[in-house]
C-alpha cells in the first residue's frame, strides 16, 4: 500500500485493506482543519465572538437552528452576508460552539482563501459526511453503502460524479435514511417520528445543523452555484427534513443570484452592527491591555480612568461597526506591531486615533507598514489608489507584470483598510475614501505617497497591454461580440485620466514610448479612430510641455483624420470636434494665427449643435465655445462675440460647471 501525505489526512492506494476493514475516516479522507473544531491559531480564520458581544444576532441564529421544522414557518437555509470585518466567521464559530454546548448535532466547513483544499469545493461532501458520521453514528452504514454502490463518489473533483450527486449520496440521503427508516413515514411529522423512535435521540434536541462559512472564499464559483441549487432542490422535495443550513459570505453575484430567493432567510449583518458590541469589545481589550501595560497603570494611578468614557464613546462612533477596524485602532493605540523605537505612549496615540486627520493617518500608516517590506508594495498600493475604477487582483497583476499571488501577498495584511475580494476577478476597493486622500497627499502619507508619476507608468502599461492583446487578435476591437479583457476595457474608458494625472511627470522618453506603442497599434489595426485620437493626444501633451510646433501640427492632423472616420450622426463626433478645437486653440496661442481661432469657433459650434440639452457633455461644449468667443473678442473687439460668449457661459453655469463660473466672473470683471 502506498500512503501519500496530503492536507487533511492520508490518501491510501491499493487493495491490501478491504473497504470493510478500513475506517470511514480513511475511506472519505476528509479535510481535518476545515471545521469549527480546528486549531484556529494554525488554521485561520482565528475568529471568535468576544464575551458579551454579538449576543442578539447569535441568539437569533440559534433560535432558528433549534426551531422545529414542522411547527415553525422558517426556511431550511439562512444566509448571513456582510462586509469584510463585520464578524461573519466569529458568528459562525459561536453558533457551532453553542450547538456543541447544547448537545445539538452540528457539522461545518470554514472556507478560506489560499488555504489549499479549503479554498476549493471538491472535498466538501466527503468532509461533511465524515463529520456527520461522527455526530450521528447511525449514518455511517448508509454512507458506506453509497460508496460501495458507487466508488466514483470518492473520485477527485471533475471525476465523473457531479457535486450535487456527491452531496446527495454522501450527506443528504444518509441523513434522510436515518431520520426516516421506512418510506411510509415520509409524510409524518418529525415529532411523530421521534415517538416511533425511528430517529436517533440526539435529534430530539433540535434539527441537524450544517454551517458553511465564507462561501465567497471558495474559488469554484460554478460549483458553489451547483451546491446551492442542489441544496434548495433537496429541501423543496423534503420540506419536513430536520436539517438547517447556515451560510455566511460577502455579497458576491454568483452567491446572491442563488440565495436571494424566498426559500432562503436573509440576514444583512450591517443591520446587526451594534455600537454596544463595539463598546464591549473595546472595553475588554482595554481592560486586558491596561493590566499588561505598566505605563498605563502608572498613568491611571495619577490621572484616573483611561480611556475616559467620553473618549470611548468617540472611539466607538469613529469605528462605525467594523470589528477588524476596531482591532486595528486598538493595536495602533497600544503600539502593537509598531517599531520598537516609537516614543509615543498609548495615551499619546489615543487622540490621534480619535481624529480623521491625522488620527486615521497614523492608523493607515501603521497598517500599511505591515506589508511595506514586501516586493511590489509601492506599485500595488499606488495602482489601487490612482485607478479611476477598481480592478481585480488578477487585472492589477497583469497591469504591473507580476504574479497574482504577489498582489494578494501584499493585500492580505491590509484587510482592515482595503476591501480584499474573495476571488481574483472581483475588484479591490478601499474601505473608506479617506484612505485615498491620505495616499495622495504627500505631507500626510510620506513614504506611502502615490506619486503622480505613477500615472505615467500606468499609462504606458495600459498601452502595452492593449498592444499585447492586439498582437494576439488584431480584430479584438473590431468585432462587437468579442469579450474585452478587463485591463483593455478599463483603458478604453479611463486612459486619458492617467495622461492628465501624469502631466508634468512625463519625460521625453515616456512620450517617445507612447508614440511608438500607438504607432504599432495603428499598424496592426489601421483606421481605428480611438487609436488615432490617443496618438494625437500624446503629441498634443508633449507639445504643451516642450512647446513643439511640430508636435501640435501632428496632433491637429491626426484629429482631422479621426474626425473623418466619425461622420455625423456618429455619437463620438462631438467629442472628436472638441478635441480638434482644443488642439487648434493650442496652436493659436503658440503662433497667434487667427485662422486657427476661426476654425476653433467653427468646430466648437458644430460640437455644441450635436449635443442637445440633455447631453452629459453639453456643459463642456458650452465652456469651449463661450471661451473661444471671448478669446476672439479679445483679438477683434467684437461685441457680438462678447455677448454670445457670456450667454453661453451663463448657460453652462446653469448646468453647474465650476469652470464656467470662473470664466464668467473674470469676463464680467474685465467689462
By helix and strand content, what is the structural category? alpha/beta
Count of β-strands: 9
Query: Number of DSSP helices?
Result: 30
Largest sheet: 5 strands, parallel
* Cα-atom radius of gyration: 32 Å
What is the typical, i.e. mean, pLDDT? 83
Using the alpha-carbon principal axes, give the shape: globular
N-end to C-end Cα span:
98 Å
Strand order of the largest sheet: 4-5-6-3-7
Helix content range: 55-70%
| Percent in strands | 5-15%
Low-confidence stretches: 1-17, 182-186, 193-199, 337-341, 656-664, 666-671
InterPro entries: NPHP3-like_N (IPR056884), P-loop_NTPase (IPR027417), TPR-like_helical_dom_sf (IPR011990)
Protein name: Nephrocystin 3-like N-terminal domain-containing protein
Keywords: Repeat
Organism: Candolleomyces eurysporus
TL;DR?
The protein is built from 30 helices and 9 strands. It has 671 residues and is α/β, with parallel strands linked by helices. The relative contact order is 0.06.
Topology:
Elements: E1 2-6, E2 9-13, H1 24-28, H2 55-66, E3 77-81, H3 88-101, E4 106-110, H4 124-135, H5 140-149, H6 163-179, H7 190-195, E5 208-213, H8 221-237, E6 243-249, H9 253-259, E7 264-268, H10 275-292, H11 294-303, H12 309-319, H13 323-333, H14 346-353, H15 359-368, H16 377-386, H17 393-400, H18 404-411, E8 418-419, E9 429-430, H19 433-439, H20 442-445, H21 453-472, H22 486-501, H23 508-524, H24 529-546, H25 549-564, H26 573-591, H27 594-609, H28 618-636, H29 639-654, H30 658-670
Parallel strand pairs: 3-6, 3-7, 4-5, 5-6
Antiparallel strand pairs: 1-2, 8-9
Amino acid at each position: 500500500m502506498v500512503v501519500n501525505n496530503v492536507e487533511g489526512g492520508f490518501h491510501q492506494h491499493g487493495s491490501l485493506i478491504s473497504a470493510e476493514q478500513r475506517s470511514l475516516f480513511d475511506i472519505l479522507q476528509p479535510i481535518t482543519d476545515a471545521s469549527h473544531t480546528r486549531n484556529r491559531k494554525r488554521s485561520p480564520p482565528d475568529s471568535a465572538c468576544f464575551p458579551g458581544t454579538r449576543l442578539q444576532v447569535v441568539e437569533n441564529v440559534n433560535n432558528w437552528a433549534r426551531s422545529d421544522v414542522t411547527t415553525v414557518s422558517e426556511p431550511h437555509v439562512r444566509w448571513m452576508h456582510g462586509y469584510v470585518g463585520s464578524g461573519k466567521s466569529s458568528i459562525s464559530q459561536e453558533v457551532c460552539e453553542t450547538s456543541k454546548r447544547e448537545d445539538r448535532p452540528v457539522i461545518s466547513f470554514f472556507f478560506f482563501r489560499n488555504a489549499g483544499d479549503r479554498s476549493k469545493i471538491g472535498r466538501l461532501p466527503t468532509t461533511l459526511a465524515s463529520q456527520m458520521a461522527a455526530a450521528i453514528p447511525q449514518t455511517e452504514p448508509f454512507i458506506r453503502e453509497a460508496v460501495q454502490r458507487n466508488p466514483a463518489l470518492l473520485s477527485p473533483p471533475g471525476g465523473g460524479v457531479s457535486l450535487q450527486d456527491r452531496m446527495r449520496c454522501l450527506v443528504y440521503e444518509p441523513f434522510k435514511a436515518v431520520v426516516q427508516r421506512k418510506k411510509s413515514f415520509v409524510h409524518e411529522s418529525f415529532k411523530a417520528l421521534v415517538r416511533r423512535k425511528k430517529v436517533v435521540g440526539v435529534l430530539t434536541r433540535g434539527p441537524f445543523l450544517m454551517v458553511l462559512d465564507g462561501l465567497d472564499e471558495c474559488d469554484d464559483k460554478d460549483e458553489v452555484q451547483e451546491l446551492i441549487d442542489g441544496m434548495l432542490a433537496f429541501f423543496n422535495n423534503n420540506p419536513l427534513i430536520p436539517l438547517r443550513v447556515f451560510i455566511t459570505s460577502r455579497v458576491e453575484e454568483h452567491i446572491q443570484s442563488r440565495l436571494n430567493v424566498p426559500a432562503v432567510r436573509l440576514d444583512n449583518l450591517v443591520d446587526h452592527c451594534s455600537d454596544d458590541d463595539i463598546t464591549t469589545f473595546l472595553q475588554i481589550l482595554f481592560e486586558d491591555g491596561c493590566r499588561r501595560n505598566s505605563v498605563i497603570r502608572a498613568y491611571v494611578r495619577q490621572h484616573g480612568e483611561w480611556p475616559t468614557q467620553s473618549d470611548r464613546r468617540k472611539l466607538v462612533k469613529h469605528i462605525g461597526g467594523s470589528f477588524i477596524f476596531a482591532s486595528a485602532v486598538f493595536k495602533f493605540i497600544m503600539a502593537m506591531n509598531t517599531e520598537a523605537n516609537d516614543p509615543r505612549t498609548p495615551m499619546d496615540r489615543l487622540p490621534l486615533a480619535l481624529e480623521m486627520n491625522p488620527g486615521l493617518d497614523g492608523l493607515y500608516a501603521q497598517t500599511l507598514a505591515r506589508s511595506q517590506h514586501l516586493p511590489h508594495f509601492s506599485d500595488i498600493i499606488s495602482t489601487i489608489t490612482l485607478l479611476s475604477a477598481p480592478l481585480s487582483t488578477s487585472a492589477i497583476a497583469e497591469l504591473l507584470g507580476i504574479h497574482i499571488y504577489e498582489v494578494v501577498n501584499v493585500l492580505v495584511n491590509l484587510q482592515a483598510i482595503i476591501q480584499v475580494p474573495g476571488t481574483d476577478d472581483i475588484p479591490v476597493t478601499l474601505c473608506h475614501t479617506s484612505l485615498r486622500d491620505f495616499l495622495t497627499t504627500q505631507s500626510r502619507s510620506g513614504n506611502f505617497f502615490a506619486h503622480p508619476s505613477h500615472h505615467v507608468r500606468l499609462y504606458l502599461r495600459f498601452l502595452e497591454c492593449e498592444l499585447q492583446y492586439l498582437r494576439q487578435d488584431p480584430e479584438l476591437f473590431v468585432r462587437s461580440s468579442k469579450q474585452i479583457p478587463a485591463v483593455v476595457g478599463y483603458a478604453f474608458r479611463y486612459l486619458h485620466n492617467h495622461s492628465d494625472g501624469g502631466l508634468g511627470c512625463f519625460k521625453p522618453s515616456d512620450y517617445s514610448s507612447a508614440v511608438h506603442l500607438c504607432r504599432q497599434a495603428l499598424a496592426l489595426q489601421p483606421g481605428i479612430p480611438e487609436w488615432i485620437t490617443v496618438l494625437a493626444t500624446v503629441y498634443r501633451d508633449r507639445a504643451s510641455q516642450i512647446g513643439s510646433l511640430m508636435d501640435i501640427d501632428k496632433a491637429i492632423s491626426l484629429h482631422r483624420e479621426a474626425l473623418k472616420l466619425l461622420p455625423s450622426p456618429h455619437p463620438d463626433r462631438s467629442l472628436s470636434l472638441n478635441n480638434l478645437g482644443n488642439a487648434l486653440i493650442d496652436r493659436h496661442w503658440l503662433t497667434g494665427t487667427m485662422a486657427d481661432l476661426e476654425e476653433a469657433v467653427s468646430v466648437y459650434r458644430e460640437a455644441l449643435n450635436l449635443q442637445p440639452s440633455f447631453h452629459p457633455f453639453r456643459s463642456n461644449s458650452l465652456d469651449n465655445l463661450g471661451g473661444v468667443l471671448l478669446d476672439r473678442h479679445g483679438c477683434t473687439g467684437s461685441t457680438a462675440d462678447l455677448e454670445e460668449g457670456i450667454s453661453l457661459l451663463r448657460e453652462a453655469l446653469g448646468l453647474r460647471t465650476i469652470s464656467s463660473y470662473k470664466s464668467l466672473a473674470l469676463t464680467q470683471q474685465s467689462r
